[in-house]
Amino acid sequence: MTFYKKIIATVAMIASVLLLAACSSTQPKYDANKPLGPQINYTITGIDAGAGIMTSTDKALKAYGLADKNWQLQPSSTAAMTSTLKKAIADKRPIVVTGWTPHWMFTKFPLKFLKDPKNVYGKTEQIHTIVRKGLKQDDPQAYRVLDQFHWTPKEISSVMLAVNNGQDPADAAKDFVKKHPKQVAEWTKGASHVSGHPKLTLTYIAWDSEIASTNVVATVLRQVGYKVTIRAMEPQPVWASVATKAADAQVSAWLPNTAAKLYADYKNQVVDLGVNMDGARVGLAVPKYMKNINSIEDLKK
């Protein structure tokens, strides 16, 4: 991206955040007796334009006929979306957001997913660990740890919530590892401590869940003796870095839907170690006080 394009993209993002803030400050409380669309200007509050959930939401607008009724998806950022959500919930105002679990917002706020009868967002997803070819031969102890890494949405959410509350991600990861010695023992079972501090690089997308999982795995690998570097990237470079061996692994491949295209592009150039977390989910979400809005179909009422 050129310098001028970066400026344009930044200005567009700032404009979208200001628009979200302006809209939220003028909305009255949610009224279940009135159609939802006019109450929120037919707007779904989204995140980064390139995110997989945004592509799925564009498809949902068409599949459910919402695009024909002037519904639109407003891109912003994860931070702007959760900030707008927090303010709306504090005032019990209506809001529809792009949501996913694991994420701390489902722990901190009273949210519910909207039913998706057309299955646009797909069923519950799994998060996979993807490593570079040759890692098993080059660094068998790291490979073993990565292969045995598995945790739950509740566990990852606890790390995300700690980070959201102001704790440094590396410190939050260290605290989790310290408090879960039995789980760490399962992840490191059969892995010998390595000498010489061999280097490893993990790449990740700078989303809350990926920040949490990558820091936790990095902490465990450091305990085994590795010198671990973690690097945040956009989704496509994350996969490309592992495929080209510029990085050793990533633990944030949402499958079979969110990362479907990237998986198809790179599956023959990487090694899929399988699921490290079950129960991931994406879709549209609303506060629970919007009791009569339970399905994406309800947005048309």
UniProtKB/TrEMBL annotation:
Xref: PROSITE patterns: PROKAR_LIPOPROTEIN (PS51257)
Record flagged with keyword Nucleus: no
Stored PANTHER family: GLYCINE BETAINE/PROLINE BETAINE TRANSPORT SYSTEM PERMEASE PROTEIN PROW, GLYCINE BETAINE_PROLINE BETAINE TRANSPORT SYSTEM PERMEASE PROTEIN PROW
Subcellular location: Cell membrane
Transmembrane segments: none
Coiled coil: none
Naturally occurring in which organism (per UniProt): Lacticaseibacillus zeae subsp. silagei
Record's keyword terms, sorted: Cell membrane, Membrane, Signal, Transport
Protein name, as recorded: Glycine betaine ABC transporter substrate-binding protein
InterPro entries, sorted: ABC_Gly_betaine_transp_sub-bd
GO CC terms, sorted: plasma membrane
Span of domain ABC-type glycine betaine transport system substrate-binding: 39-179, 199-301
Superkingdom of the source species: Bacteria
Signal peptide interval: 1-21
